[in-house]
Structure formats: C-alpha cells, structure tokens
Design brief:
The chain has 96 residues and is mainly α. 66% of the residues lie in helices and 0% in strands. Helix 1 packs antiparallel against helix 2. It is rod-shaped and about 75 Å long.
Length: 96
C-alpha cells in the first residue's frame, strides 16, 4: 500500500498541498470518493481523521471554484447591463 504524505507542521496530518492545484471536477470526484470511503466505515480512527481533513479541504476547494465562477458570472452580467445601458443612451436626444 502507498505511504501517505504528512504535513511538516503536524506529522500526523495529511499533506493537502496537492488540492490547491486541482480543478473543480477533479476535486469534486475525489470528494465523492472520500465521502463514500468514510460512509463505508471500517477504517481506523487515524485514517478516518485524515480522510475527514482531506474531505474538508476538497470541499473548500470546490467552494473556491464555485465562488470564482459566481464572480465571473456577476461580472459578465454587469458588463452586459452596462453595454445595454450605453446602447440605449446612444439613441437618446440630449436633455436641455
């Protein structure tokens, strides 16, 4: 069985540094697998804690991606509204 990396700050904590480079789909798929493994049970306490920590980090990564997507959508909507406002004001006569 492959040996798991541990954090240098806490030797018993899993290394979560790879999660920061994950895309949304990759993080979500691993989160689903991690939850399934936790729900299946049968793991030792230490492994369960490591899975829980990794699952929480994966959930946070997914949330970061979703927040970023939400911000991009809001920015696109604002640009569209501004463009529509400019289009409607171009045909208007100046108010004296």
């Amino acid at each position: 069985m492959a040996q798991k990396k541990t954090s240098t700050q806490n030797p018993s904590a899993p290394d979560l540094s790879d999660i920061e480079s994950m895309g949304y789909e990759e993080a979500r798929e691993e989160l689903v697998r991690t939850v399934a493994q936790l729900e299946a049970g049968g793991t030792a306490l230490e492994e369960s804690l490591a899975l829980w920590e990794r699952g929480a980090a994966l959930a946070n990564r997914c949330e970061q991606w979703l927040d970023g997507a939400r911000e991009r959508l809001e920015a696109a909507r604002e640009r569209r509204e501004e463009a529509q406002g400019e289009d409607s004001s171009e045909g208007a006569e100046p108010v004296s």
